[in-house]
């Protein structure tokens, strides 16, 4: 038997664990490692790790028999590349005379012998494992595992596949699959593609000699754990559903943190507790195999030869142009005279700085960019950095521009408006003991806000407050003034974020102060931010600071804790039903039962039947899936966060280390106002004035560029008109994200650049309806 996997250098520890786990049970099997990376700059330690005997053979991606190999590699992202090579390398192994060939993902570990595979390959050409073998009627499982999982990504999980090339259909399949992956292995959902995986949904139509392994011990992973219980038998062997040995486990999502977050949710009630132990064991194994050293290594093929980062848009443009592929056989190269593909790219997408009065000393030996490029390669980058610095100096001088709008003398207080605008309100502008421990003494959101710097010319950072200053929400005067401004400009309420963790509250002071001060005559409602608190700002996804607990007891405790607010005369209601917004309803393990408990409690205590609204976050869309009354848009989540709006290559990034998404705010507005289809369920519209979380994720912030009060006004007008057309009078609410999300660049509160412009745009819209 021949086993192979494909990795980049950062997956080396995982591949070593996989190879060792195979050797534990099958010393006679041969393990081939396909390195979809390059050793340059990573020797000698990497080369030593590849040659220490744990791998029987190592093949480099540029050794594959593919015409114009570097151009072919360039067309693919790292993930696409690591999957695209599977077909061509399978064909190479067959040409070399190997027959029984198994592909296994590098983040899989073998936990029991796999002898049955040899038997099955004697009888079949192709072996597959499906993502799911059974189903439940749990709404979250339906959404996560069926709709967002299998229907989106394919029936079969291509973390495992086996082929017998000695059988006729084994050869025919390898030729078909190899050709498809060589030409069409991309993560392009709009075209129906998900790298190598969805192609194999066609196997039952094209081939007869295949076998689907329905043993639940194969390919156990987070997406099928709700139907697979892990346990030990009397002899200490890992079992699935009591009577099937756990053959191999797929530790998918380890690096992103998504995998362990799913495991935390699935095991939060004590179910499948052994799985969490298994993840703990895997983490220790990774550490022993060098995860700290190799886990953060970036792929060689993510950069041009001059060190400039390659963007996805560059790859797409090259991939879609036969002329460019013909002209630049190796697009990674920077040619001395022609400059190569990178020089072509810069000419096609010129930066504004080249037309300015800035000039660079061509003979300067000093590299001001922080990049490893020689001086004659970085002129454009220096120009962008200079323009960005001049922009910072202008902001430092506090110079008002034509964008600044002063405080209005007009007021919409006590004016009945056809649409009620509700703004989300962040209470994290006062110190708490927990943040002192986690982030440093005296930490508030302002600590993030003030550290931001622009990443490209025209990038508005930092966002600095205007009239209200760097306020502390422990001061009553701040909230009084916030309410005055909100009412003057036509807002009808705040939606306070409510941080509640199984009975423990955080950042509750501003809400409590508002609640107790009955003269704060302003409507409000609560939005339960029901997700774990982690160190995401520092990039440590797995480090949970505060964990959510969901069970019948906390369901009742939660609604009971809300009771005083729901009784408040200022609480926002629809037909005498208090609205409750849940930020991540999909995380409720038994949403129907939770909803029933809340409704029963509210009925028993005469609070009114709660009007439950689920935020459309993290791909969740339909409130009917969780038995809620309505959904609420929560941009930039879901439809707005889409590569169709991405403009990274057009902005001219100044920071060589910047690595995130830049979207076009005007394009988003056009789509939301003129192109988006109406949903088949009850929905409330939400807009954001701007969005830029660079303060929370330095050099990794998501930016919606070219936002302005005018474009915000267009979006708000469109949402209000849609609401007037589609909602009855009592449900005509439009939400704004947000009143004061300063660290995400989403605030109506006045700032130094625009003054009261976003508030003025809000007023102008509401009074024009």
Explained architecture:
- The protein is an alpha/beta fold.
- The protein folds into 2 domains: 2-217, Alpha-Beta Complex (Spore Coat Polysaccharide Biosynthesis Protein SpsA, Chain A), CATH 3.90.550; 420-532 and 540-768, Alpha-Beta Barrel (TIM Barrel).
- The protein has 26 helices and 28 strands.
- The strands form 7 sheets. It has an 8-stranded parallel beta barrel, surrounded by 4 helices. A 7-stranded mixed sheet has the order 3-2-1-4-7-6-8, with helices on both faces. A 3-stranded antiparallel sheet has the order 9-10-11.
- Strand 27 (740-741) and strand 28 form a beta hairpin.
With helices defined by DSSP (H or I, 4 residues minimum), what is the helix count?
26
CA gyration radius, whole angstroms = 28 Å
Q: Please tell me the CATH architecture of the largest domain by its name.
A: Alpha-Beta Barrel
> Which class best fits the helix and strand makeup?
alpha/beta
Task: Provide the fold topology.
Layout: E1 2-7, H1 12-25, E2 30-35, H2 45-50, E3 57-60, H3 69-74, H4 78-84, H5 86-95, E4 100-104, E5 108-110, H6 115-123, E6 126-128, H7 139-153, E7 160-164, H8 168-184, H9 203-206, E8 210-212, E9 230-232, E10 238-240, E11 244-245, E12 248-250, H10 258-266, H11 273-288, H12 291-294, H13 312-319, H14 322-327, H15 340-348, H16 379-396, E13 420-425, H17 433-439, H18 445-449, H19 476-488, E14 491-501, E15 504-506, H20 509-516, E16 523-528, E17 533-535, E18 540-546, H21 552-566, E19 573-574, E20 577-582, H22 591-604, E21 611-616, E22 630-633, H23 648-651, E23 662-664, H24 665-675, E24 683-687, E25 703-705, H25 709-726, E26 733-736, E27 740-741, E28 746-747, H26 757-768
Parallel strand pairs: 1-2, 1-4, 2-3, 6-8, 13-14, 13-26, 14-16, 16-20, 20-21, 21-22, 22-24, 23-25, 24-26
Antiparallel strand pairs: 4-7, 5-12, 6-7, 9-10, 10-11, 14-15, 17-18, 19-20, 27-28
